[in-house]
Design a protein that fits this description.
The protein is an alpha/beta fold. The two termini are about 30 Å apart.
Length: about 325
């Protein structure tokens, strides 16, 4: 059965067109149309839509919409902007994203492990000096978040013989990983980790989770990688701990405001590496295939894929 599937996104025209072409190639029997190109009948009859940071007003303009399929794994903005009794939100679960994120965690962990920020500073000062390199087995990497992304990252780190510990909200286990859970045990992970990697979703519970008190609990000279969401870390407190030397370096890929404003002090801080939200990019080919498969199954069975738990935010 051929149908029109709305595509709703707040992005530039080139990005939207590229997505429409990728989705169209994955669903050749259907027509993918921008929301603004839909006829009134198509808006009224839509039951499913594909979205990427959609305008809530556009979603409201399709009154019989049952569910929306996000092209992103992170859906906290959509969940916050859409009414609780609105359409079911289905997040993208792409195994390729887990692999890509795990690569990023390993790459930037090695960047810190091999002391690249120090050597960069030495280059700027024209200093030729070698520093001792510990074995990976002498470094403890603490992962905050042991969901799909965290587990993939842990496996990659274990392959390189790093010591790995992980923290999650509820109790979980993983071979080779020392696991902790709950608010109290978070302090244990922070205190024993040489590098802390943030991989958890943004929820009411995780907002400002790494505040001044918890950053103080990190061991002296340790470093931080944030590949999750900016508001999880208190940016002002982080700058204070970097300025004091308590923390050695921070690799930040996510921020409270994106793009990061040009006058933000993080840009020029010598102990901060700023990345433009590139740690876990969505692959259009694999994502489109997954969306196509989920919509095909829905049309054949009437079953909507599992949606986001609105109370938890993911």
């Amino acid at each position: 059965m051929s149908m029109v599937i709305p595509f709703v996104a707040r992005s530039d025209e080139n990005d939207r067109q590229t997505w429409i072409e990728a989705l169209g190639a994955a669903m050749p029997d259907h027509r993918i149309k921008r929301f603004e190109e839909l006829t009134e009948i198509e808006r009224q009859s839509a039951r499913v839509a594909i979205v990427a940071d959609p305008d809530p007003a556009d979603i409201a303009g399709m009154p019989d919409l049952l569910w929306i399929h996000s092209l992103w794994a992170g859906v906290e903005r959509i969940a916050n902007e859409l009414p609780v009794d609105g359409p079911i939100i289905v997040r993208l679960e792409d195994p390729q994203m887990s692999k890509t994120m795990a690569e990023a965690v390993l790459a930037w962990t090695l960047y810190l492990h091999r002391d690249m920020p120090r050597y960069r500073r030495q280059q700027e000062e024209r200093i030729w000096k070698e520093h001792a390199l510990p074995l990976p087995s002498e470094r403890t990497i603490g992962l905050l978040g042991l969901g799909v992304l965290g587990r993939a990252a842990a496996a990659k780190l274990l392959q390189q013989e790093f010591r790995v510990c992980g923290w999650s909200r509820s109790k979980t286990t993983m071979d080779g990983v020392e696991t902790f859970h709950g608010a109290d045990e978070l302090y244990q992970v922070l205190a024993k980790s040489d590098i802390v990697v943030v991989l958890m979703p943004l929820t009411a519970e995780t907002r400002s989770l790494l505040d001044d008190g918890r950053l103080s609990a990190m061991c002296a000279g340790s470093s931080l990688i944030n590949f999750a969401r900016g508001p999880i870390i208190d940016a002002a407190a982080l700058l204070g701990h970097l300025d004091s030397g308590h923390l050695d370096h921070a690799v930040l890929d996510v921020f409270n405001e994106e793009p990061l404003p040009k006058d933000n002090p993080l840009w020029g801080h010598p102990r901060v590496t700023v990345l433009p939200h590139i740690s876990g990019p969505t692959n259009r080919t694999t994502a489109s295939a997954i969306v196509a498969g989920n919509i095909k199954a829905y049309l054949e069975t009437g079953q909507i894929p599992p949606g986001v738990d609105r109370a938890r935010g993911y």
